[in-house]
Design goal:
This protein has 269 residues and is mostly helical. Among the domains are: 87-188, Endonuclease III, domain 1, CATH 1.10.340; 198-261, Helix-hairpin-Helix base-excision DNA repair enzymes (C-terminal) (Endonuclease Iii, domain 2, Orthogonal Bundle), CATH 1.10.1670. It is built from 14 helices and no strands. α4 packs across α14 (231-244), α8 packs across α9 (140-157) and α12 (198-206) packs across α14. It is elongated, with a radius of gyration of 22 Å. Bound molecules: iron/sulfur cluster.
Length: 269
Amino acid sequence: MPSKMKSIKKQAGVTRTSRSLSRERPAPASERGQETSTASAASETPALRRKAKPKVDYTSPERLQKIFSALDELFPQAQCALRHENAFQLLVATILSAQCTDERVNKVTPGLFQKYPTPQDFAALPQPALEEEIRSTGFFRNKARNIIGTATKLVADFGAQVPRTMEEMLTLPGVARKTANVVLGTAYGIPTGVVVDTHVFRIANRLKLSKQKTPEKVEQDLIKLVPQERWISFGHQMIWFGRKICQARKPLCATCPLEFTCDSRDKTV
Ligand code: SF4
C-alpha cells in the first residue's frame, strides 16, 4: 500500500483495509439481465457498434452502497473540523468558514469566543471591532455584519438560543441551507439535509451523483439518494474525502477506493 494512503487512513482512524471492494465498473444494463435484441444488434454496422457505450446507472442502489461502504471504511468517525463547544459557537464558526479554510477559522475562534462567549456579547459589539477580530478569515465586513445580525436576532427572537428547525435557521442573517445543515446536524444531531460545500459539490459531480450546477439543487439530488440516517455522516465523510483524496486540483485517484466506479474527466489515472 502506498505510504500516502497509509497516512490518510491513519489520520482518519481507519483500522480495516479499504480495498475490499471489487475493481469493477458499474454493470452495464446488458449485464444486469436486460436482454439485447439480436435482430437489431445484427442490423447495426460495425462502426455504430463501436460507438455505442454501455449505459451505466450511476445512482443504482448497488453503486450507492459501494460508495457508502468505501466512505465508512475511510472515515468511520468523520466529524466537523470546526472547533466549537456549543451550537452558537458552531454557527459563528460556520459563518466565518465561508471562502476560508477551517484551519484558519480555528486559529481565530478560540480567542474570539474567550472574549465574547454569548450571543449577547456579539449583539453588543460595534461592527468595526468584530471586523478587526475576524479580518484574517476574509470577507470580514460581510461576515461581521452577518454575525452581529444573527446574534441580535437570536437574542430578540429565540431567547439567545440557536433554533432547531431549518425554517427558523433560514431567518438568521447570512444563514443558508449549508450553514443550517452544519449546525443542526453537528450540534443537535438533527438531519435536515445534506451539507453541500465546495468538496461535496465537486465530488457529487465527479461521481455523477448529480449533474446540477448549484449547491441547493445538488443537495436535493443527494437527499433522494442518501438514506436520511446517513445525511449527517455522509456530509462529513464527503468533506474529508475531498480534503484528503478527491482534491480539487490533483485528485489522488491512484489511491482512491472509488476509482473502480469513477468515470470523472478529472481522474488522474
Ligand atoms: S477516482 Fe479520482 S476523481 Fe474519482 S472519486 Fe476518486 S479521487 Fe475523485
